[in-house]
Amino acid sequence: xAKREKILVAGEWITTENSLEVRSPxxxxxxxxxxxxxxxxxxxxxxxxxxxFKEMRSWSGHKRAALLSSIADGITxxxxxxxxxxxxxxxxxVKEARAEVTRAENTFRIAAEEAKRMGGEVLPxxxxxxxxxxxxxxxNFPVGPVLGISPFNFPLNLVAxxxxxxxxxxNPIILKPASQTPLSALLLGKIITDAGLIxxxxxxIPASGEAASTLLDDSRIKKLTFTGSPAVGWMLKAKAGTxxxxxxxxxxxxxxxMDDADTEQAVKRCITxxxxxxxxxxxxxxxxxxxxxxxxxxxxxxxxxxxxxVTGNPANEKTxxxxxxxxxxxxxxxxWIDEAIQSGATLLTGGKRVGNTITPTVLTGTTAKMKVCxxxxxxxxxxxxxxxxxxxxxxxxxxxPFGLQAGLFTNDMSAILKAYETLEVGGLIAGxxxxxxxxxxxxxxxxxxxFGREGVKYAMEEMCEPKLLVLQGP
Length: 474
Known about the structure:
The protein has 15 helices and 25 strands. It is an alpha/beta fold. It folds into two domains: 4-249 and 450-471, Aldehyde Dehydrogenase, Chain A, domain 1 (3-Layer(aba) Sandwich); 253-439, Aldehyde Dehydrogenase, Chain A, domain 2 (3-Layer(aba) Sandwich). Strand 8, helix 5 (157-169) and strand 9 form a beta-alpha-beta unit. The radius of gyration is 23 Å and the shape is globular. It starts with a strand and ends with a strand.
């Protein structure tokens, strides 16, 4: 029987009465067992974090940077173990799992550099009569203990995007990883404690959302950073009261392919964007709008490339698409595909369940009211539609409750600037898919996609409070 993994609470690796089984999304095999925390563990963690903050807030930049670099080294040393864990518990194809580990290492290295650059601003205040000789110093100060809640789809790197910025500014953090994928986070927790983070600086507590949310009744918690579903995110925000909050709640990203685009490049990138990790990515390509002069060529090539993808065991080096995270997600996806077809859409390819996977699915003839267009499908499903007018297609992309990122393939700078001004998104990726992300760029959305920004530097700012000092000069 698999060893029951301990959880990290208030600087100690402990066991609890309740267990959590982690099973492979691919074949339901038992991957591992860990412990479930409850309100009691979160309260202990909050107390330890409060004590740790007294020391962490005063750490020098070079001390924070050295710790973060050591953590990055630990990720490198454990890369294969981390990759294998991601494959097993998340069902992510091994080549994508390795890429995630590399990104997580880079996230900590970026944080190490940013920890040295936490500067401020000198403000001239003599802009009005009576303020002669006055100037201001503006600095960011860490807010205190952070509650981080992370999702299953990037079980290592999205944890890194909460933990690394917190350490970089001197905030302790209490992490609740996704119940489907806690083992990667626990392994990272071991790497971080081995690197020398003080007791209470990090707790990793697999638990129910209800247990974690009890911390929002605890005044010792100063910041919530959440990545997950809109329903849960907005509920937690309402409960968070006056605390600082960052929400990243997903999207249904649109791509526009203009008539001057390189069709082959656009197809290949859209294939990657639509089907990486079986579409279970917040910025997965979900809606593709292709200029009518390219549409037929694009459609034929896109279907051919989708059908070439290998679906199956995520541990196989050749696999492109692994499983959906759970059977409920499979059934929901198939229901939405069926709803679209029954409402007049045409299935161009895919739409079949094979074990716990869904074959790459392409639909056309869809409308904005269909769930495959209006909601976040979070599955290997993409819609493909023609357009002939830029203003109209910008409106179609905006006809969504979400606004995370969008992509635009064109060489026309005027079209790029118009889209940049018009699209209701947190980021427009020109010449590529909305799935593009580097770990230093500001990342977040508008509307139902949430608010606030991740990306190391920007997450650090979200975990700080600016404070002004006004001085009288000579």
